[in-house]
Every structure is written in structure tokens, then in C-alpha cells.
Amino acid sequence: MSIFFGEIRQLGYVVDDIEEAMAYWSDTLGVGPWYYNPKVPIRNYEYDGKAYEPHNSVALANSGFVQVELIQTRNDVPSMYRDFRQAGRTGLQHVAYWTEQYDADLERLLKQGFKPRMSGEVGEQGRFIYFDTEYHPGTVIELSEVAGPKGRLFDLIRETAENWNGQQAVRPFPDLDTL
């Protein structure tokens, strides 16, 4: 538990081959099922204050209470993921904290001196922001809004993992507009 953020809810891994990474996590570690989106629909994406159109593939699964996120960049758009890869790294890139009070938490963190680096939205009430906080690999902090359909998706992923029997290890992302 963080006295500043609450519980770490997600571990974000940047990988070279997301299909291979899903297979490793499910076949070797027994983590799954994976909800896979080959092109995450990110709106209002900004990196260092400039707008871009990223193409990222993402897979999500839970191991207990913690969600594991696998991320593969598919284009050369500036991002903290790309920076991580260009530094020669793969593996844990960020930890995420989830909130239903995004505006209040963001304001509090900005007052504490956290500096935004990358942000966007995935679905209604699904904003996210990454802070320029990487003091060593894997310590970038993400604040992720889960008040809308993205939060319902995360609940579905956790609930599905609780009774997963190892079958159907990879599943498509549901449409966030229908959750």
C-alpha cells in the first residue's frame, strides 16, 4: 500500500512480441486469461504536450488482485514505452494506481510536484496519465481512471481470472461502448 496512491493495481510490461509474452505468462506462469486488443483506441493522446496517434497492442490479465498489462508498440510514435525500448530495456515499465476520483487525485499529485509526461483516454471516463518519475527501470507511475467502462472491463478481467481453468488463454477485448 502506498500512502500517496493506495494499492498498486497494475504492473505494466513492455514487450517485443506480445503473442509470445501472453503464451509465456499463461503456459509457464499459469496467468490468464488474456484480454487482447491489437490496436487500443486511445483518444486525446499526448506525449510531452504534443498530440500523436499511437498504435499499441495491449493484453490484460489478473494474477489475484494485481492486473498484468503487456504492451507492444506497433509504430514509432513518441511514448514512454518507446523511450523504454530505445534505452535497450524490456520488462516492467510502470506501476498503475486506479482511481474513481481522477480530477481530485491528479490535482493533488500535481501539487506534490509530479510532472505529466504522457496521457490519453481509453473509453468514457478512462483517462490515464504517466508521470515523469522513472528513477530506475519499472518505476514510472500511471494514474488510471476507472469510473466508466474501462473500470467495468477491469472488473470483468479480474472476475474471469478467478475461475480460469487454463482454457481459451487469449480473448478479444469487449467493446468498451457496450460495457
From TrEMBL:
Coiled coil: none
Organism of this sequence: Advenella kashmirensis W13003
Protein name: Glyoxalase
Highest taxon above the source species: Bacteria
Matching InterPro entries: Glyas_Bleomycin-R_OHBP_Dase (IPR029068), MMCE/EMCE_epimerase (IPR051785), VOC_core (IPR037523)
Biological process per Gene Ontology, one example term: L-methylmalonyl-CoA metabolic process
Short name of any one Pfam family annotated for the protein: Glyoxalase_4
Alphabetically ordered keywords of this record: Metal-binding
